[in-house]
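Deliverable D5.2: sample structural annotation.
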Amino acid sequence: MDAIEEKRREEIRVVGLMIRVFCEKIHKTGAGMLCKDCQELLEYVTSRILNCPRMKEKTFCSVCSTNCYAPARREQVRQVMHFSGPRMLLRFPIASLRHKYYEWKYKRER
């Protein structure tokens, strides 16, 4: 697997974890389960990541200069990230720290 595909896979994995944390706490779904709305959001975000033309240049969507999401979806993702971000450190510390490291590294290089 090449580096770009690995980045895509990691970004999908991290956003999936964040949506899962959000859905479990806000929508009261069972552990590892997603409600219909959150499943649709995950599918939407996944399709955007899989078709991202700037994957080679960026680390995560949050630091990308191009916004690929429709306004309504962008707001949904913003709410998920705002809620899940602080909780990720406790639930998924390695994924959370890795995400923050790459985000910091990318911003520093720019």
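Annotation notes: The mean pLDDT is 88. The two ends are 27 Å apart (CA to CA).
The annotation will be released with the project's public dataset once the embargo ends.
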